[in-house]
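Let us practice reading a record.
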Amino acid sequence: MATTTKNKKKKLKDEIYGIIRNDISLREKIAEALIIKESSVYDGARRKSVRFSLSAILDIISEHTGKPKEHLTV
């Protein structure tokens, strides 16, 4: 019988959630990529949602902040 493992998403560092909450242009980019409202991005950052650890979103955050993707997650 084959076993499957669930790939858990990692949370972002608290510092990165803070950057998302405070940077309007970054929130707009993330909202566009996820097809959600900017206020939903802010709420997600406040809740420390793992949704932001999707590869495409990590790319956006990395490009915007200049930090390597490996340094964004815990």
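A brief commentary: DSSP finds four helices and no strands in the chain.
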